[in-house]
Sequence to fold (232 residues):
Amino acid sequence: MIRSQKYISRVPKIALSLVLFFSSIFSNAQQRIGFGIHADPVISWFSTDIKQVQNDGARAGFNFGLTYNKYFAPNYSFSTGISLMRAGGRLVSSDTTVLEFSKSKYTVLPGNPVVYKIQYLVFPIGLKLQTNQIGYLTYFTDLGLDPKIVISRKADIPSLGLTDENASNELRMFNLSYHVTAGIEYSMGGTTALVFGLNFDNNFVDITKDNGNHPTDKVSHKMLSFRFGVNF
Fold:
């Protein structure tokens, strides 16, 4: 519990420092800017650091948002934006677990999964590197960090017939992850381009709370998404 509290207490400080750092760079750069929109199918799952609690499968999700790029050189830019991501995963424990939802507590027997459905508000901050245009194509990669705010926390317990339970007592409100994106931009003329890519996202911070009889663990949320977008 103490370790998890230390993790989460660092998130707002880290996020604020990153925002201030990149904001100062954006204000000093005098190059072109670019905007884009994207709609990304997502596959997400959990990983844990103890044997008693394990991932029990992936869930489909979706990520929709806006991107902003501030170029400080022809092929390099600082990237940011905002997006709304729906993701989730399944956890199963080898021990009997008591879950504390908003209205009641439920006992989950060993081997019965709990399905989490989460919505994040994401504020990516990264560095984008791209090639010169080759024919109609430009290749790019984007590396950075994603401060996240959890705006919806729901859970299903299939063995008890429960769906869409409020899981705010079980899941944390803030998180931080890194992202690695690679893809291509297909020029449609001028600065307009279609974007296709692949993105991997991995949270640094324990997404769950260690309540009651829960074992002390770290549950990380991992996501693989397929980028479909338009740059302007």
Observations:
- Residues 13 and 19 are 10 Å apart (CA to CA).
- DSSP finds one helix and 13 strands in the chain.
- The longest helix spans residues 2-28.
- The radius of gyration is 20 Å.
